[in-house]
Amino acid sequence: MISQTAEYGLRAMWHLARNSDQPQVLSKIAKATQVPKDYLYKVLQSLTRVELVRSMRGKNGGFALSKPADEITVYDIVNAVSPIRHIRQCPLTNRSDCVISDRSQKKLCSMHGFLEHLTEQVESRFRAMTLADFPPRS
After folding, report:
1. SS3 helix, strand, coil % of the chain, rounded to 5?
2. How confident is the model at residue 19 (pLDDT cuts 50, 70, 90)?
3. Model-level pTM?
């Protein structure tokens, strides 16, 4: 459904949301989320670039959310690190008349229409859920 990169981004953001009292160092986030440190660093760079995370240098530095958890959606996170892809050409026959030219012009076969509808539902659900909606650790 989502890429491993998106999963890692969600894990990291969930950890930062649950530990928002102070910046978290990379090694602590990697250990808590079970994400390889080098991979995690690249994911955090992507999240920093879109201003979902802030990075602080120095003795008390680390990574922290750049805004409250209830203002960061799952869609924001996934889209920052590994955007959901829409199928642009017909998955059945690659017909030229079954395409999405832009978001307002869709002329799709039944299979392509079904897959596009599912993708839109996933995006809608991701937009509706924030980091604050995730359950605490058990």
Report:
1. 50, 15, 35
2. very high
3. 0.85
